[in-house]
Amino acid sequence: MKVFAISLGCPKNTIDTEVALGFLSSTNPGLKLTNNPQEADLLIVNTCGFIEEAVSESIDTILAVAKEKTNRQVLVVMGCMVQRYGDDLKKELPEVDIFLGTGSPQSLVTLIKDQTIQQYQQLQSPNPRMLTTPPWRAYVKISEGCSNRCTYCLIPMLRGNEISRPIAEIVSEVNSLAIKGVKEITMVAQDLTA
Predict the structure, then answer these.
(1) Do domains 2-122 and 125-188 have the same CATH topology?
(2) What is the pLDDT of residues 74-87, one digit of tens each?
(3) How much of the chain is helix, strand and coil, in % rounded to 5?
(4) Contacts for 24 with CB less than 8 Å, ≥ 6 apart
(5) pTM strictly above 0.90
(6) More confidently predicted of 164 and 73
(7) What are the strands of the beta sheet with 42-47, ordered from one edge?
(8) For residues 65 and 60, what is the distance between their CA atoms, to the nearest angstrom?
(9) 44-99 tens-digit pLDDT
(10) Is 73 strand, coil or helix?
(11) Are 12 and 46 a contacting pair, CB within 8 Å?
């Protein structure tokens, strides 16, 4: 998992961000930080809500990050501004996936897991499906998106980072197609070698 994190405001927010990242890395051993939001699976903005200028900076930063967000990235907004204006932010910023106030950065692990599972389940259900191929042939999608960032390719921006379907789900779909008389199945993904 790659994480892009911005911490605004005081040094306490920097520490809260570091603690949240520490909890995340303890459950995701391969976690890496990136300075490029387009490379990230997870986008974190730790906000300040102490004075009006800090609130404005936080909102501007959230909107800038949200503008670059793909549908497979998770955007987390945390910190003082969420603690202070949480209900209003939830109404005004639908681009944000997770809001987290102050005092419990460790709960980010559970919130992200729940959000990732929700996105993952959206990928798992290609059915019901009406086949338009000849009755003896069908395609089976085994993953969605691509986590590579080739300079010439738009796939990560359009389809998001790679999310694979569970093998059992793929086998079930193939068996279902075989029962319907399909003899030729082509596996489909943006990056079949991943």
Answers:
(1) no
(2) 999 999 999 999 99
(3) 45, 20, 35
(4) 1, 3, 31, 42, 108, 109, 112
(5) no
(6) 73
(7) 32-33, 2-7, 42-47, 74-79, 98-100
(8) 9
(9) 999 999 899 999 999 999 999 999 898 789 999 999 999 999 999 999 999 999 99
(10) coil
(11) no
C-beta of residue 68 within 8 angstroms of C-beta of residue 156: no
Structure tokens of 107? 């709960």
User: 125-188 has which fold?
Assistant: Transcription Regulator spoIIAA (3.30.750)
Domain edges within the chain? 2-122, 125-188
* Superfamily of 2-122 according to CATH: Methylthiotransferase, N-terminal domain (3.40.50.12160)
Cα(148)–Cα(157) distance, integer angstroms: 11
The pLDDT confidence band at residue 103, using thresholds 50, 70 and 90, is confident
| Residue 192 neighbours by CB distance under 10 Å | 9
Token pair 């395609």: residue: 139
Task: Estimate the crossing angle of helix 80-92 against helix 52-68, to 10 degrees.
Answer: 50
* Alpha carbon distance 55, 132 (integer Å): 52
First to last CA, the chain: 15
Please report which confidence band the pLDDT of residue 117 belongs to, taking 50, 70 and 90 as the band edges.
very low
Helix/strand/coil for 45: strand
